[in-house]
């Protein structure tokens, strides 16, 4: 057989024309999202004040297996996709492992990450519905940038609430987001009631995704013609991100390969959910037995130390409640540099799969993550985002195990983005001022104590 190329790109014709909805093949569906006022499952109409109608439909559609990607979105995708499937020859050599390591690199667009895959879809549906503007939150800044790119393409005004510590760590994110005509506000801010309340209670807070979501939702529902969009966690976002896994699977089939292990970093779960989707389908249908590993920060360990419970998706408790692995919506993570992984909960789809034993999870301290990131950068010449480096760490650990056992496993991991805006974090690692923070059980307790009480469901 011909040697596997370093980088494999599909042709435009080979690119997927449909997204894959993993829920259609799950043995049991994730528990329904609840309306916090009635404690009843939300209907599509309940979601209309916040979400665009087509997206509300996708959110609640657990049945349609394949959903056509509108042609306009396919054409936009072609500006930066297909993303390459890369064989990590140099990393394999440096680790002296018999494992074959592949990664799907999503960093080749201005947002520097996979986030554009869902941003363009959400902006497209907003335009189709004739909305006047959108609001959103951003953690690391990739999602805010991606949505700014997508909104500027469709001339939709956008307000981005950026988690304060990331805003301060990455001043140039602001410039990029403004280049695409969006406005950006560090969160918590005094521009919303919820922001003011959070600031009153925690004046020195560095913010969290949960706070920023509350502010963005409040801004959307209080501005006529505006809706809110979210870059992760939701079912619709995992649906759009399935493009990552679908392309990977086609490329691997062309190489006559199939992954024994698939690894991704997990913040709200969108890249991981998208990457694993078609491989998980095979597992659910009994066609393969791949192992799936979510890698999360030890400072914000929602899967590995969280509770599987109904919780709000935001700190201000304005969103519907989802059953997911959560640290409690009041949990404010430490200022871990992987801003995109500082979310208290996890996608309900991934939470359910993890709960039912289809997926494993590990957590890792940030100094180990940066050790893996710098090692990887030197072998493969890509400077990874700190979020993505969690997956690199996981893949390297698996490859090292293969060295011990002599197994030539095929490992696939998601390299979600580049880290050029994260140089303060890289500097902290290099000058040894970075420290690891792992919350104690006592520190996690208040978050759990604040989980909502739902009569008959969660007392
Ligand atoms: C580069 C990168 N990777 C991963 C993530 C984590 O998000 P998710 O778990 O939704 O893929 C983020 C989030 O901001 C990110 O910017």
UniProtKB/TrEMBL annotation:
GO MF terms here are: L-serine hydro-lyase (adding indole, L-tryptophan-forming) activity; pyridoxal phosphate binding; tryptophan synthase activity
Class of the enzyme per the UniProt entry, highest EC level: lyase
What InterPro entries does the record tag this protein with?
A: Trp_synth_b-like, Trp_synth_beta/beta-like, TrpB-like_PALP, TrpB-like_PALP_sf
Which keywords has UniProt assigned to this entry?
Amino-acid biosynthesis, Aromatic amino acid biosynthesis, Lyase, Pyridoxal phosphate, Tryptophan biosynthesis
Q: Which reaction does it catalyse?
A: (1S,2R)-1-C-(indol-3-yl)glycerol 3-phosphate + L-serine = D-glyceraldehyde 3-phosphate + L-tryptophan + H2O
Q: According to its UniProt record, in which pathway does this protein act?
A: Amino-acid biosynthesis; L-tryptophan biosynthesis; L-tryptophan from chorismate: step 5/5
EC code(s) of this entry: 4.2.1.20
- Report the cofactors: pyridoxal 5'-phosphate
User: What exactly does this protein do?
Assistant: The beta subunit is responsible for the synthesis of L-tryptophan from indole and L-serine.
Q: Which family does it belong to?
A: Belongs to the TrpB family.
Subunit: Tetramer of two alpha and two beta chains.
Q: What is this protein called?
A: tryptophan synthase
What is the native source organism of this protein?
A: Diplocloster agilis
